[in-house]
Each structure stands twice: as C-alpha cells, then as structure tokens.
Design goal:
The chain is an alpha+beta fold. It is built from 6 helices and 10 strands; from the N terminus they run ααββααββββββββαα. Helices cover 45% and strands 16% of the residues. The strands form 2 sheets. Strands 3-10-5-6-7-8-9-4 form an 8-stranded antiparallel β-sheet, with no helix packed on it. A two-stranded antiparallel ribbon has the order 1-2. Strand 5 and strand 6 form a beta hairpin.
Length: 299
C-alpha cells in the first residue's frame, strides 16, 4: 500500500481480526552516518577550492585560481545554498544549522552529534529537507504529487482553494480531470511555470489549504553543479576563456621566438661584418706601420 502516507510504503504480510498501531521513525545512527558522509563530501570540495583560491602573502604562495572570478563565485554560491533557507517543507523555511551543523571560518562544516539526534526527535522534517524532495500539504486529506516526470515547479508555499468541482492553486485555475477508474483530481495548468506539473487529489472535500513544494538541499546542489559544469555553465566558459588565452599566448610566444631569431641572425651578421671590418682595418694598419718603418730605415 503506497498511498497511505507520502513517501511510505506498507507491505502486508498477514491478516488480523484486531486493530493495530502503525508508527515509523528515522534510524538515528543511519541518519547521522548519512549526514556525516554528506558533510565530508562538502568539506572535501571546499578544502580543494580553498587550496586553489588561497591569496598568497610573504609566507604562503597564491593558489593558481586566486584571481579567478568564476571559481570564487562557485564557492560563494555553494556557501549560500548550504547556509541558506530550504523552502517548501512547511510554512517556515528550514536550515541545515537546525541539525547541529556549523560553518567554520574557512567555510568547512562540522556537526554536533548530540544536537543532530535531538533535532531528529523534535523535527525530523529537517532531515527530509536535506535529502528528500517532496510535495506535501497542510491538509491530511490532500495528496499532492508530480503529474509528470518532467515536472519542475518552483519550491515554496502555495494557497489551494476548492469547491469540490473546481480549484485554484496560487490563484491560477486548475483543470478537473477523472481517470479511467473514475478517480477525480486537479491538474495545474501550464501557464505558470512556478506551479506547472502539480496533481492534487482530495480524499474528502477541502475548501482551502496550503500546498508545499520542497526541493531538498542535495537536489539543489546537484542542480547547481549540473548547470555549472554543462557546456554553457560558468566554469566551462571560464575554462574556454583560459584555453583561448593560452592559444593567444602561444601565438605571441611563437612571434617572440621568430623575432628573437631574426634579431639574432641580424646581430650575428652585423658582428661578422664588424669583425671583418676590424680585421681589414687592422691589416691596413699593419701595412701602414710596416711601410712607415721602412721609410724610417731609409732615412
């Protein structure tokens, strides 16, 4: 049974004639290990970027990308994502810091194990905000889901109003639809990109509620890195500019080599000619000296 609670599946293995209680909770140890691996990955990336962009001084050599604007922008963007608000997991934004994660002076992260486990008890939704993108609602009688695999609504909180036969989401009219089994639901129209691709099914009549579209921190980082690394991304553009500059510098170096060779040949020719002239003048001087010596002897 996959439609009792969002993101949960119930497997029935036997029958019973008496009632029973169902409950679930996060495994704190597994959750902490997952969070620690996530933090370690971010720290590895941050440390490498710090190494490449370090600004040198009298005792430290500058990193090869210390003046690269694109890489500095990437560092800042990752910091903003990691420390910024995560929207769409309830009425209020959530933060990574709520799970005991703190930012060090160099931008790396540390996690307080005790705070993390305590927060899982008081507000486990924060963990979902880090790792699990999801649709949800303020009403237990609304099932909110993506209407297609390509749906990409903007994370946030949206108002839902319905009279049973029609509905609006964020002020935009939804389309009432019935599937082949006779189940009715509403679809957001394609006019608004922010709420495009949302399907809402009412378990019972709901006049108004809030719909939450949540994109996890992991998915936000993944999307950002994909956009950064694609052919039109800032990093690729910066790499292409560097490649073009290197090609231009190589052309300049070739020109300098050609000029240096030309000057060397020119000065070599001048030196040889000068040496020839000196030799000729010296020979003439020797001749004149000998001739004067001969005249002097005759006198």
């Amino acid at each position: 049974i996959a439609d009792l609670f969002d993101s949960y599946t119930l497997n029935l293995i036997s029958t019973t004639t008496s009632s029973f209680r169902i409950s679930s909770s996060l495994d704190k140890t597994t959750a902490l290990n997952t969070m620690t691996e996530f933090i370690d990955t971010l720290n590895t990336t941050r440390s490498k970027l710090n190494e490449l962009t370090v600004v040198g001084n009298e005792t430290i050599e500058s990193g090869p990308l210390s003046r690269n604007i694109a890489v500095k922008s990437i560092k800042n963007s990752i910091t903003e994502l990691v420390t910024g608000p995560i929207k769409g997991f309830g009425a209020d934004s959530l933060y990574l810091s709520e799970l005991g994660v703190r930012t060090n002076q160099d931008g790396t992260l540390t996690i307080n194990d005790k705070t993390f486990k305590s927060q899982l008890d008081s507000n486990p939704k924060v963990f979902d905000a880090i790792f699990n993108s999801m649709f949800s609602s303020s009403s237990p009688y609304l099932k909110v889901e993506s209407s297609a695999s390509t749906s990409n609504p903007t994370p946030g909180t949206y108002s839902y109003i319905s009279d049973g036969s029609s509905a609006t989401l964020a002020g935009s009219n939804m389309t009432a639809t019935t599937d082949s089994s006779g189940n009715s639901y509403f679809l957001s129209n394609g006019l608004s990109s922010t709420i495009r691709g949302i399907k809402i099914t009412e378990a019972q009549s709901v006049s108004s509620a809030f719909v939450y579209i949540g994109e996890s921190l992991v998915d936000q980082l993944s999307t950002y890195l994909t956009n950064t690394l694609k052919s039109s991304g800032n990093l690729t553009k910066a790499q292409n500019v560097a490649g073009t500059n290197i090609a231009d510098f190589n052309i300049d170096l070739t020109d300098i080599d050609d000029r240096a060779k030309s000057l060397k040949d020119r000065y070599t020719a001048q030196f040889s000619s000068m040496e020839s002239a000196v030799t000729s003048l010296k020979s003439t001087g020797d001749y004149l000296t000998n001739m004067m010596d001969a005249f002097n002897k005759d006198d």
